[in-house]
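Retro notes, item 3 of 5
We never archived the inputs for the FEC complex last cycle. Fixing that now. Sequence and ligand:
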Amino acid sequence: MDEAVNRNPKAGVAGVRGTARPAAQDGTGRDGPGRGDLVALLVMAYGTPQSLDEVEPYYTHIRHGRPPTPELLQELIDRYKAIGGKSPLHEITEEQARRVATTVAGRLGRPVEPFVGYLHIAPFIADAVERMAAARPRDAVGLVLAPQYSAASVALYQQAAREALERHPEAPAVHFIDHFHNHPGFVAALARRVESTLAGLPADRREGAVVIFTAHSIPQPVVDRGDPYPRHVEETAAKVAAAAGVGRWRVAYQSAGRTADPWLGPDVTDVIRQLGREGARAVVACPVGFVADHLEVLYDLDIEARQVAEEAGLAFARTPSLNADADFIEVLADLVLDRLGATRHEAAAAGARPEGQEGQ
Ligand code: FEC
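Structure as it came back at the time:
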């Protein structure tokens, strides 16, 4: 599934190999001379069932091992059916990983291999770490495909990676990217999509349009413990609104879980209803908390939120997802290259290459 990406510096062309890079031959430990020059990209994402049969184990994993009730399971299966039976998240994640690796390889002049691991379904993050360790990379960067940091998201991915790394002392230090919620290229990419989506609204609706920046809700108790997530979401929204010159905008949360806990709000559907009462003419949903098309975008926004908007008399549009678009791939490549640069800088400052994993 993973492909090794290699750049031949003499030819100056980025190429993709179909086989895993052979392990280094020196056997001298983590970072000794003679090791290969391979950069590993540990790309971590939520994961999605590949068929309706996989929905139950996937949902059970999300619920920390507690199987869903038959009603909850059927409700989730029905949502997948409503978006065509399957979420495109798996294919998009794989393409993002492959393209970032190709771009980084081209800019760095070193071979780069992506190792994709999912939080809630196979191949799990631990599987990706195992494959990464076997490839004997010289450097490794850990990238979670979620822009804002939360103990309920990015921290869980990194924890899964760290636990797996403890079983692989032969693996190099993994340098994690904690968040990119305020990266200028990320903000600019979203702002362009907001501008084009607003421009696509019927002229008589554009004037009274409100942009709603959305992110996945998280349990309120996590927020109460001082989680940076709501601040990150607000910052992304404010920066995108400013870059796109949008005057009327809100932040809302979506896709709250079916649990007993209160969840971070306001919910996007409540905000849409409120805007309807306030006389808005249209809403543009911009999911700043997600970087790909998947169930929460294709169902919770495109079907559920759209229906609520139409019932409230509002036109509805949603900004296109970043997916594997060139502008977003450049952002991810920048992040990885920055992290590798930081790694070299830190190593020089310490007088040695860093061992072990980093804090956040
Ligand atoms: O396309 C797909 O098949 C997968 C879409 C998907 C993404 C996603 C992202 C986030 N989640 C976050 C937090 C939670 C918490 C719970 C929770 C539950 C679900 C369920 C499904 C699901 N999530 Fe998710 N999430 C996606 C899918 N999520 C399906 C289960 C049914 C439901 O509640 O709707 C509650 C866990 C519990 O019960 O204890 C918490 C956060 C993100 C955004 C960051 C990230 O991508 O990691 C936060 C995509």
